Amino acid sequence: MTLDQLSLDAPKIVTPPPGPRARRLLERQAQRESNARTYPRSLPLAVARAQGATIEDVDGNVYIDCLGGAGALNVGHGHPEVLEAVERQMRRAIHTLDLPSPVKDAFTEKILSILPAPLQRTVKIQFSGPTGSDAIEGAIKLVKTFTGRRTILAFQGAYHGVTGGALAVTGLRSPKEPVASLMPDVHFLPYAYCYRCPLKLQPASCEVACGHVIESVLADPYSGVTTPAGIIVEAIQGEGGSIPAPARALQRLSALAAAHHVPLIADEVQSGLGRTGRWFGFEHAGIVPDVIVMSKAIGGIGLPLAIIVYREELDTWLPGAHIGTFRGHLPAMAGGIAAIEIMQRDNLLAYATEIGAFLQAGFRQIQAQYDVVGDVRGLGLMIGVEIVEGAGSMAPSSTQSAVIQRECFRRGLIIETGGRFDCVMRFLPPLVLSRAHAQRVIDIFGEAVAVAAHGAEKTRAKVVEVHAA
């Protein structure tokens, strides 16, 4: 089956979105569901079916999906081979808590097989509750139990989830500010965000200055920070703006963590399972963390599953220390096995690298034409395009990014905004995105950027007129 056969023909806009049927469902949702809902606010879409890298709405519009279940759909929507594996397992057993079974054993073996060689036979696996947030909670408890310490170091720009502990180590302030008494003793370090360096330095000459800050926190007896129980990091920040940390920054972090005997936790919930062209994002830097947190794509086709993989010497917690009723979701494990086998057979890691480079090249051509595109970055099919005010200003522009997202949607392309000030267009398509669809992504994105750039020019012209008057 080719990549084109996996998806619907796209894009196809038969009714300007949101169409009448979608609008009715969106209105009913707004009446009944929590104010905390997010995606329908900027993507007014009601889904009828989805296949491969495409989604069809209830009004017959077909979209290229570059949201990809927020990174959960690495082999696409409804991959037939994964569906077959899931359905076969559902006829056998579905919910068995943490009791062993052939499919669980096979899934464990498959996960071990894709780990870096130094870890493959020296780790333990904890099946968590079915969300990445829950696995993050478990990882924090694990390192605190092992070290007997209480402090956690995290990074500015990080996103690890919205449960209590996960939210405490998340950089985004807005969901934290209304919530009192989050987990204490969390300290935030500057992330290697080279386009907007928090230390106002240049990557070519900074000598990994952000690493010097980390060293000072760990080594200075007057840093004010007690020796941490763990350091948690995303090798590529996801919700923070699709920001890959330079390899040397991660290497420095890993070396400092090891030197000070602080377990290093790699959050691979979004960047894991091949999205970046490697099984795990941290592999691009050649480091080996002590704890790896996985979720999203390991459930094959978006089925809920989360695990923690860690060095066996950390396995000092007691039975029942981290549990969850749905930690034994066997259909998700069957789906995960099938997805990994498909990725291996179809060489999707190399393809993610190739098609990601193709997309970035197209986006850089757009960047050369329009000054509202400030930065293009990413690894594999985890790409960010940062939108700025333009006309010589690097100021982030959430106004322009909102226009671009809206114009893309109108033309049949679903993308998410994120990052600081919601100014980053985030591309997380399934790894089965065909080259033809990738070209349409570039074309549509270029059209949307042109609309935003033209609007920005008109706004600047009006400002000049006002000042002149």
Strand fraction band? Answer: 15-25%
If classified by CATH, what would the architecture of the largest domain be?
Answer: 3-Layer(aba) Sandwich
Number of helices: 14
Write the CATH fold name of the largest domain: Aspartate Aminotransferase, domain 2
Mean pLDDT: 95
**Helix share bin:** 25-40%
- Residue stretches low in confidence (pLDDT < 50, at least 5 long) are none
Structural class computed from helices and strand pairing:
alpha/beta
Biggest sheet layout:
7 strands, mixed
Instruction: Please tell me the total number of domains.
Output: 2
Compute the separation of the termini in Å.
64 Å
Quick one: how many beta strands?
Answer: 18
Categorize the overall geometry: globular
- CATH class call of the largest domain: Alpha Beta
The rounded Rg comes to: 22 Å
- Give the strand order, joined by hyphens, for the main sheet: 4-12-11-10-7-5-6
Q: Could you walk me through the main structural features you see in this protein, from its secondary elements to its overall organization?
A:
Helices cover 38% and strands 17% of the residues. With 469 residues, the protein is an alpha/beta fold. It has two domains: 3-65 and 347-468, Aspartate Aminotransferase, domain 1 (Alpha-Beta Complex); 81-345, Aspartate Aminotransferase, domain 2. The strands form four sheets. The chain has a seven-stranded mixed sheet, with helices on both faces. Helix 8 links the parallel strand 5 (151-155) and strand 6 (186-189). The longest helix has 34 residues, at 435-468.
